[in-house]
């Protein structure tokens, strides 16, 4: 007898553990446009995959030798993959559950990735051609449609010699290793080994069984399939046999005798090879591709299609579907076959045409099939061959003929508008099917073998229109007729009936004759009735699309009602909205779910195998867009996309928009005789969609449909809406996907805006006016607006003008979206909305730049995509006037540069153009860990009660969760033939960050834009080699550079010298780097310099390096020294400052400054100083004294920031207080900390009445107590703070809740304040008592301009937040108000119960 070790003999050791799936060079060759570092990606992924292989091992998996079980393992597999479960299971693989790995049951080969270009079987052969399964050896594979019952050897012999059990046991010599059942158990149950696979045969009843699995009970199997066996009955009681049968799982009521004999040789399984079917093999489909064939082309489309060509969409370029040769530039009189042969003499299609007359193509008819397999055996051993048996055999033959005909297997979903079809013989994709209970709750997922094994009584199969119901029933009929599905051989007759084709008074026999076997058939009601009575559950009716007619024919009604007596098997498909009546008859209910994405990929991959670049882009788009994924919810939508690709070959778009366009087009075209009616239905549905969209409603009631004048039954038949009924409640309707609703709403909106009817047009404007914020534009209505602009140039201009006008409306920056329902359908918008919410809450230059960029790119893309550029261009050019535009050198912004090429006058309209180039960056350290160490070392870990744990959110470092292998993309403009004429950009701002990989593209782009600019500003961050590579270009345009910012750069002497040639610089900033001594030593070269910033990485003595001529830079207005040593040369700086008569801003941050008093004196002398910012705790007391002594001379001062200074001396504090009233023009005051400031807080507050222009006040870091805080509130009530916009009182931990309560109750008369900051460090957090919170809420309600309240460290519970939200509803800034109260930390708090 064989042992399990025999499994090693069928697999030679080829090192399946050591394979590498990913090849960097292959990725680089095919997907270079993705700009991914494939070397790094493949290296790291291959290591991860090797670890998974080690974890899984490579031993034979006995449980997974069943293909049906392998299929079941994929029920928990991801829905988006380039391989589908059917392919993987057929190639021997099952899903392991470890990451996304699949493993061969036989050789143990593991794949952790799937290839789009090669199917799993091909990759299986590539990586282990010695696998016994691949080689077709008997390794125990059980095909998915196989059954336990096997057919006996045709050469039957007397088996009575095996009546003795010991002789039966001896027959098991050579018992296969994979059969995990002990031979002694089989021989005891009456079985002997046949010598074929694991098939055994009963010596008594002659019944054969095989495909044994571990823990099978031979007695139970014997009783189930052959209950009449005399040996069985002699060993087991009637009750035992009955018990065995009743507890058997599957094939209820079926015995071994019901299965037909299949005489074809099936020694070992033949592995199914999935050959790709080129969609253009069909001549009619090739002809469909010529719908946009140029009218002036010299070749005839019909002739081209006959010659094997399809249209590529480019001029008159055509391509052969077989050899791939492309031919163009046809001339009158060209012989297309000759031209084809001239350029591709070895083309297989041409060879086939030339030998067509000599070839005899076999016809797959019933007669042919019967040579291959015996017809179904009519099992009625006690009945003579009577008339009904003859009729059954004849009818069976006729049905097989029908189902094997190409007319039956070919599905044409859009037969009135396209010849694109699915041949169910060769292309049937996996669908997702679940069982349901009587309350409509899902129970379990099923595979196709699961469905086939349980077809009995009445099975109801529900699904939306286009979900694959028809394909499923036809596939069942085809499988039955093919003879290769043992599961279905239990049915003698299978009748496929299309419910929509039934006439009202037709009998069942008449329906079968007319739809299947022909009206000349002799089938009558009596004969059919007798067949049903004799065969019962050996007859299967497949009733397709039940309920779509206005009536149910009596014949079908009787078939269902009388089935408890007839006991035939019936499978009925029905739309989701029409299954209520059918449910009462059904024994089991199956529901077709959303079409798996891997099946969409499978269909497209099979049909367009000749165009893999298109399929790769399709897959990438599918991976990146959740919206696109959701739109492909049925096979019909996938096919509509394929039709679009055929009929519009130049259409590269793979998105939800493509699906919507194609589906709507074919919905209209498939009703050629009722086009106007269908268009009216589309318009009514558009009205419903539009109404729903603006109410955030995606499910509708009958009342909603009535209000929009939607004819319910008509739109359901047209497939524009779906109907659902849950647990007998009110019916609900929806569009197949939110994108389709948005698409129809956009079409209706466009019709309204285009209308000549003023009422209709005003209705459209009223909808448009509701899109009144940037958050609504970029979020909830983004896709809708985009679709609107595609339908007509007029509506595009109206929409773009409306969006541009939002920039002039301050309320457009409100950041409350009001609803998040749309994010369920467009989750990709969530990040953008979150960013806009944060950015819009604070008026900054970045906010304006961001929304300007978004509006500009949206409008240009919409204009190009909708072919409305001519009408939209003047509006866009007007929008550009005086704007500061920021764009990136990337493919996503290429439309903007294309617009400038088409309309170069836009260059002179722009105030400034910022071009951003992002390269590779060095891997940053783990900021989360570093931040955690810093915070815990200073403040420790917070402790909080469970009710207030919401005050802390765990901040995660994205980089730690997801490795980013992308290279930064730089769009090339080598074909950007810009003829700008006299148009020039006023200011070009170039910003580069990171290491530029593709310097050639970057240099080319710079050479285009540098000569188009009057002035150039550079900001270069961490970009090694930038100046060296750009040297020649900089040298040419050196006089145009007015600003240069260097950050984290290492410059050699040549690069520093190059920068010194930019003598026209007005601004030079050097930060985060070592001092470039050559530049600093020759700073006097920049005679026009107005702004100098030295913010160095290490404290450096640069003042001594500065040349003496530095003092002659009389134009200098802003001077900033940060991390610059002043220990030895501070007096020299003071000398320089005396010469800067135009200095208005001075920043200083250093640790030691001996001559600080001289510096302050020099700064105050010019009389123009407007801004002073001093950082670092470097001037305790005497520094404040030096500053206070000259403050009265700085009458023009507007900004005083000394927040990081320390003042502990009362005398110093007194001097500072006395100097404050002289600063009448002061706008920002950020006060120092220290005991003296805290003591003098009230006197300081009293001086604020003399500072009427004050906009910003910072009283932070324990400078206030209860008394001084109340005094500040009194000052506000007295009107002394009426111009305050930002009040920062953070980190004042000595203030009690009583003090805060009094402050909130008193604070008033802050008419334009927009930000109030009262946050506390998390270790000083306190629970907010109800009275204090009430006072705060009332206070905020009085501050009508407040948009941001920062109160981290104030612990709030759900009731507290509810009080805030109630107040916000009535606040004037409700739409933009932000409450920031949750700490975001890299570690969690300690939570107390």
Automatic annotation (TrEMBL):
- One MF annotation (Gene Ontology) recorded for this entry: metal ion binding
Q: Where is the signal peptide?
A: none
Q: Give start and end of each NACHT domain.
A: 457-751
Which Pfam family, any one of them, does this sequence belong to? BIR
- Tell me if Repeat is a UniProt keyword of this record: yes
Q: Which UniProt keywords apply?
A: Apoptosis, ATP-binding, Metal-binding, Nucleotide-binding, Repeat, Zinc
Give the matching SUPFAM superfamilies: Inhibitor of apoptosis (IAP) repeat, P-loop containing nucleoside triphosphate hydrolases, RNI-like
Q: Which GO terms describe its biological process?
A: apoptotic process; negative regulation of apoptotic process
Q: What is this protein called?
A: Baculoviral IAP repeat-containing protein 1 isoform X1
Q: Which organism is it from?
A: Xenopus tropicalis
Annotated gene: naip
């Amino acid at each position: 007898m064989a042992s399990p070790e025999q499994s090693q003999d069928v697999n030679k050791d080829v090192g399946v553990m050591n394979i590498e799936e990913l090849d960097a060079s292959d990725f680089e060759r095919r997907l270079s446009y993705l700009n991914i570092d494939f070397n790094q990606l493949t290296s790291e992924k291959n290591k991860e995959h090797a670890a998974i292989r080690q974890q899984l091992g490579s031993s034979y998996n006995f449980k997974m030798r069943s293909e049906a079980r392998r299929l079941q393992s994929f029920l928990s597999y991801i829905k988006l993959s380039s391989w589908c479960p059917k392919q993987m299971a057929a190639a021997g693989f099952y899903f392991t559950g470890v990451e996304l790995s699949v493993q061969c049951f036989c050789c143990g080969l593991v794949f952790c990735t799937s290839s789009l270009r090669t199917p799993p079987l091909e990759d299986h052969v590539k990586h282990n051609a010695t696998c016994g399964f691949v080689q077709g050896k008997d390794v125990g594979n059980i095909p998915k449609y196989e059954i336990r019952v096997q057919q006996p050897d045709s050469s039957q012999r007397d088996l009575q010699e095996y009546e003795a059990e010991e002789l039966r046991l001896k027959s098991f010599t050579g018992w296969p290793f994979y059969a995990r059942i002990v031979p002694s158990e089989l021989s005891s149950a009456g079985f002997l080994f046949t010598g074929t696979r694991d098939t055994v045969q009963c010596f008594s009843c002659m019944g054969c069984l095989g495909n044994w699995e571990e823990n099978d009970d031979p007695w139970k199997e014997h009783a189930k399939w052959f209950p009449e066996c005399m040996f069985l009955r002699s060993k087991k009681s009637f009750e035992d046999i009955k018990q065995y049968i009743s507890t058997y799982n599957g094939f209820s009521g079926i015995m071994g005798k019901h299965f037909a004999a299949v005489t074809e040789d099936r020694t070992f399984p033949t592995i199914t090879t999935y050959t790709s079917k080129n969609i253009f093999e069909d001549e009619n489909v090739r002809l469909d591709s010529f719908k946009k064939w140029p009218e002036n082309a010299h070749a005839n489309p019909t002739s081209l299609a006959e010659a094997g060509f399809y249209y590529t969409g480019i001029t008159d370029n055509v391509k052969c579907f077989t050899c791939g040769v492309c031919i163009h530039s046809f001339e009158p009189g060209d012989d297309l076959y000759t031209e084809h042969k001239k350029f591709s003499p070895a083309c297989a299609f041409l060879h086939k045409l030339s030998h067509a007359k000599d070839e005899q193509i076999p016809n797959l008819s019933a007669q042919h099939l019967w040579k291959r397999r015996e017809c179904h055996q009519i099992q009625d051993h006690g009945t003579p061959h009577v008339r009904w048996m003859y009729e059954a055999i004849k009818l069976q033959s006729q049905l097989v003929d029908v189902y094997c005909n190409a007319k039956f297997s070919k599905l044409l979903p859009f037969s009135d508008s396209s010849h694109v079809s699915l041949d169910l013989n060769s292309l049937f994709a996996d669908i997702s099917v679940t069982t349901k209970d009587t309350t409509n709750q899902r129970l379990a997922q099923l595979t196709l073998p699961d469905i086939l094994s349980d077809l009995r009584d009445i099975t109801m199969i529900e699904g939306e229109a286009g979900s694959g119901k028809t394909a499923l029933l036809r596939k069942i009929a085809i499988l039955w007729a093919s003879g290769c599905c043992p599961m279905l051989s239990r049915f003698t007759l299978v009748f496929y009936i299309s419910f929509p084709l039934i006439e009202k008074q037709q009998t069942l026999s008449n329906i079968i004759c007319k739809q299947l076997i022909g009206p000349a058939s002799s089938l009558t009601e009596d004969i059919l009735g007798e067949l049903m009575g004799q065969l019962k559950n050996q007859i299967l009716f497949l009733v397709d699309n039940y309920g779509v007619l206005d009536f149910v024919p009596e014949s079908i009604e009787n078939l269902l009602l009388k089935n408890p007596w007839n006991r035939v098997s019936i499978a009925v498909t029905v739309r989701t909205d029409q299954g209520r009546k059918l449910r009462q008859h059904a024994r089991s209910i199956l529901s077709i779910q959303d079409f798996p994405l891997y099946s969409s990929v499978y269909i497209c991959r099979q049909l367009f195998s000749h165009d893999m670049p298109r399929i790769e882009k399709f897959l990438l788009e599918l991976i990146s867009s959740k919206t696109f994924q959701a739109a492909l919810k049925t096979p019909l939508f996938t096919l509509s996309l394929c039709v679009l690709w055929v009929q519009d070959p130049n259409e590269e778009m793979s998105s939800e928009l493509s699906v919507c366009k194609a589906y709507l087009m074919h919905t209209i075209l498939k009703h050629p005789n009722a086009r106007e009616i269908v268009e009216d239905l589309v318009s009514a549905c558009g009205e419903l969609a539009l109404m729903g969209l603006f109410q955030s409603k995606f499910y509708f009631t009958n009342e909603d449909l009535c209000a929009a004048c939607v004819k319910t039954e008509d739109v359901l038949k047209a497939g524009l809406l779906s109907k659902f009924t849950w647990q007998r409640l009110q019916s609900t309707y929806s569009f197949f996907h939110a994108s389709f609703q948005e698409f129809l709403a956009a079409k209706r909106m466009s019709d309204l805006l285009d209308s000549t009817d003023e009422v209709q047009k005003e209705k459209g404007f009223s909808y448009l006016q509701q899109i009144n914020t940037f958050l609504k534009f970029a979020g909830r209505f983004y896709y809708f607006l985009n679709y609107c602009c595609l339908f007509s140039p007029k509506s595009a201009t109206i929409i773009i003008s409306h969006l541009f006008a939002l920039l002039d409306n301050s309320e457009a920056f409100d950041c409350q979206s009001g609803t998040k329902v749309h994010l369920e359908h467009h989750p990709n918008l969530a990040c953008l909305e979150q960013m806009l919410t944060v950015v819009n809450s604070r008026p900054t230059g970045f906010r304006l730049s961001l929304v300007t960029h978004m509006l500009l790119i949206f409008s240009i893309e919409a204009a190009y995509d909708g072919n409305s550029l001519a009408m939209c261009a003047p509006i866009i050019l007007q929008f550009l006037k005086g704007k500061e535009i920021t764009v990136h050198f990337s493919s996503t912004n290429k439309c903007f540069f294309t617009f400038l090429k088409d309309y170069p006058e836009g260059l002179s309209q722009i105030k400034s153009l910022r071009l951003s180039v992002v390269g590779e960056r060095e891997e940053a350290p783990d900021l989360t860990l570093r931040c955690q160490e810093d915070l815990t070392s200073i403040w420790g870990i917070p402790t909080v009660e469970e009710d207030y744990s919401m005050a802390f959110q765990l901040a995660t470092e994205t980089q730690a969760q997801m490795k980013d292998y992308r290279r930064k993309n730089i769009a090339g403009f080598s074909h950007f033939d810009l003829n700008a004429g006299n148009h020039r950009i006023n200011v070009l701002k170039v910003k580069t960050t990171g290491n530029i990989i593709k310097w050639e593209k970057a240099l080319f782009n710079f050479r285009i834009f540098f000569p188009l600019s009057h002035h150039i500003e550079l900001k270069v961050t961490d970009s090694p080699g930038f100046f060296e590579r750009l040297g020649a270009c900089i040298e040419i345009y050196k006089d145009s550079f007015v600003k240069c910012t260097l950050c984290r750069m290492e410059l050699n002497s040549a690069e520093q010298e190059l920068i010194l040639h930019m003598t026209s610089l007005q601004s030079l900033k050097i930060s985060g780097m070592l001092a470039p001594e050559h530049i600093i030593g020759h700073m006097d070269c920049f005679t026009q310099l107005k702004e100098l910033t030295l913010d160095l990485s290490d404290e450096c003595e640069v003042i001594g390096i500065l040349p003496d001529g530095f003092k002659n830079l009389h134009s200098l207005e802003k001077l900033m020294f940060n991390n610059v040593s002043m220990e030895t040369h501070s007096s020299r700086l003071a000398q320089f400052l005396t010469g800067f008569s135009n200095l208005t801003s001075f920043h200083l941050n250093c640790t030691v400054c001996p001559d600080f008093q001289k510096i302050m004196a020099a700064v105050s002398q010019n009389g123009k100083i407007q801004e002073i910012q001093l950082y670092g705790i470097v001037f305790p007391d005497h520094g404040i004294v030096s500053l206070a002594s000259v403050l009265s001379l700085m009458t023009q001062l507007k900004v005083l920031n000394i927040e990081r200074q320390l003042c502990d001396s009362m005398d110093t504090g007194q001097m500072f207080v006395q100097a404050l009233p002289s600063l009448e023009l002061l706008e920002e005051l950020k006060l120092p900390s220290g005991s003296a400031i805290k003591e003098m807080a009230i006197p300081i507050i009293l001086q604020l009445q003399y500072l009427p222009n004050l906009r910003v006040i910072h009283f932070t870091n324990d400078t206030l107590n209860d008394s001084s805080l109340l005094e500040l509130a009194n000052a506000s009530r007295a009107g002394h703070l009426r111009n305050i916009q930002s009040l920062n009182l953070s980190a004042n931990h000595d203030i009690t809740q009583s003090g805060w309560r009094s402050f909130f109750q008193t604070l008033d008369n802050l008419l334009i304040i927009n930000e109030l900051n009262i946050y506390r460090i998390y270790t000083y957090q306190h629970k907010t008592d109800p009275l204090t919170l009430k006072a705060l809420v009332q206070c905020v309600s009085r501050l009508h301009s407040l948009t941001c309240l920062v109160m981290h460290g104030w612990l709030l519970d759900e009731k507290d937040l509810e009080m805030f939200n109630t107040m916000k509803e009535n606040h004037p800034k409700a739409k933009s108000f932000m409450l920031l109260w949750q700490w975001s930390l890299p570690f969690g708090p300690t939570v107390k119960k």
